[in-house]
Amino acid sequence: MPDRMATVSRHALRARRIYILLVILFLQGCAQLPPQNAPSPSYAFDRPSETRLGRQIQPHLQDRSGYSGFLIQDTGRQAFLQRAALIETAEQSIDAQYYIWNKDVSGTYLAQRLLVAADRGVHVRLLLDDVNLDGRDTMLAALDHHPNIEISIYNPFAVRSGIGKWLSFVVDFQRLNQRMHNKTFVVDGALGIMGGRNIGDEYFDLHPQMNFRDRDVLVAGPIVADLSENFDAFWSSASSYPIRQLEPDAEQELSLSSQLDQLRASASGTSRLTQVPPQNAAQALEYMARVLSEVTWAEAELVFDSPVVDGDTDTDHPQRAAETLLQLVEQTDEEILVESAYLILGDEQLDILEQISERGVRVMALTNSLASNDLTTNHAGYARRRGAMLDNGLELYELRPDAAACSNWIKMPGFCTEGMVGLHAKSAVFDRKIVYIGSLNINLRSIYLNSETVLVIHSPQLAAQLAHDIEAAMAPENSWQVTREANGELLWSAGEEQSWTHEPATGFWRRFKSGFFSLLPIEKYL
């Protein structure tokens, strides 16, 4: 009897502990954000002609009234070097807005160079979405401690890490499900970068296992002011919290000045980079002069979604960037070429696809295969709608992880023999005249939930360049074409000689997981 009572007592104690743990986790999930203090007004620098970079651009603006300059960043190395060079040229301001900023080789290097820029008097504003910031509050608080650096977090979680963070996602689903997916970078109000790349090794041809085929645009001229307007809208939004409000005790708990000194001490370290960026303003300005000679000048519009207001955004109606995409689709006469890392259409978009196909518009899309996709769940949402997209007239291609063009896309020595390439680009070409490029995936999350920034460029020259690149990626050596057989089954083919009746280069378990997730009607949230 005593043994039995002791056993019952142990079970009761264990149950009570579990109950207490669940209560604690629930209370963590229900935690509230601190009251937001009214921030000091802060606006983008708008006098580029007072800076060396602005004066360098002035000769290119002559006789081009109303035009802006654009250079597509085709490789990750190119995208990294141009960002690094712009930081070195900065005299007045750097405004950076990102969905992801990784604490890896490229992310750490760029953060350290931002610190060096701040040391010489540059005003740095960094706005980051909170969904991928686990464990980085300490470094961000240290940087924010610098008098010339301000860091804010967009749509933050009240619980900063651990399982409580994700419980709060469940409790506050409407608000926290809407993320800032924008990626913009502006220096001295003179030059900017926008597009699909986050800050991380896999976006800059520096990751040993997987690198992305991605696309950004370097922008110059009047449209840079629109990029700054985009940044200011999110920076001053009620959904953006200064990191010091989220971590009010950081200064007492940490030696922030010591952390800044550690960052400075290694700020010039380039041994882990595959190519050394410009290390001072003179080198950087010389590098940017060569870059600017390759810029194409054209008319364009920048479109960005509004920041979230208390989670009350209408998530049943397409947002501004998606509406702009729809307008371009409806105005197309002959052909649409699309590349989108994640491709998930809802009923409304499928109806539009059917309508434009019926009036003779050819629509071709490149997306990730299951083998090249970094997210099996996202692929499952796409697979759930893949047959319907084919039935409604889409010509569909899926990127091969062993694409033969890898060596043209990824400038990392030896990578293409060992690593895997994935697609992260988000762009489209309409009638070989108009380019649409930015952060918007053609999926339901980007259309209805996330905020996005896109460029619409009216340039047959850039449209021809981008169309050529997309078509080359669709070639059999780089992608599998997906078609539907007469019996209704899907077929993947690489030219006339090779075909598969299931998703190529994948094992049973991964196909099973994708198939299982595709049974769930959650594609809007992927």
Short description:
The chain has about 525 residues and is an alpha+beta fold. Helix content is about 40%, strand content about 20%.
The general outline is: globular
Radius of gyration, CA atoms, in whole angstroms: 24 Å
Number of E-type strands: 20
Strand content: 15-25%
Poorly predicted segments:
4-8, 19-25
The averaged pLDDT comes out at: 90
From the structure provided, what is the oligomeric state, counting identical versus distinct chains?
A: single chain
Characteristics of this structure?
20 strands; two-stranded parallel ribbon; 526 residues
Question: What report would you give on this structure?
Answer:
Helix 3 runs parallel beside helix 4 (105-119), helix 3 crosses helix 12 (281-292) and helix 5 (137-144) crosses helix 11 (256-265). This protein starts with a helix and ends in an 8-residue tail after the last helix. The strands form 2 sheets. It has an 18-stranded mixed β-sheet, with helices on both faces. Helix 5 links the parallel strand 3 (123-129) and strand 4. The longest helix is centred in the N-terminal third of the chain and has 28 residues, at 2-29. The protein contains 20 helices and 20 strands. The protein is globular. The model is unreliable at 4-8 and 19-25 (pLDDT under 50). It is α+β, with helices and mostly antiparallel strands and 526 residues long.
